[in-house]
Design a protein that fits this description.
This protein has 110 residues and is mainly α. It has one domain. It contains 4 helices and no strands. It starts with a helix and ends with a helix.
Length: 110
């Protein structure tokens, strides 16, 4: 799976999550999710290239992605005034989607 495919798949899965599970705050999250994905795309590309060239391990790659996502998502949600409990639930769901996509990609590339 190519990195653009991963990003597209993540975007669709996160949009589906918001549409299905967080309908009541969807209007607050749409722009936030796009902002998160755009902000992390450059860093994701850099880390992906490091992983491909064996400069970092798969575990380091996953850790970098999860850490970056946590920081950006929490900042974006706080800016929208969403409660900390709701932020945590949304964050856990999004991290699960990202983790599953990355694990699938790693398995497919072996």
């Amino acid at each position: 799976m190519k990195k653009d495919d991963i990003i597209n798949e993540l975007t669709e899965e996160i949009k589906n999550l918001i549409n299905n599970k967080y309908k009541q705050i969807k209007h607050l999250l749409d722009d936030t999710v796009l902002s998160i994905l755009n902000t992390t795309k450059d860093q994701f590309d850099k880390w992906y290239n490091l992983l491909e060239s064996n400069e970092i391990s798969e575990e380091e790659f996953l850790w970098l992605v999860k850490t970056q996502q946590n920081i950006i998502i929490l900042k974006a949600l706080q800016g929208k005034g969403i409660s900390k409990i709701k932020q945590k639930l949304i964050l856990e769901d999004i991290i699960l989607i990202i983790g599953n996509a990355l694990i699938k990609w790693i398995v497919d590339t072996k």
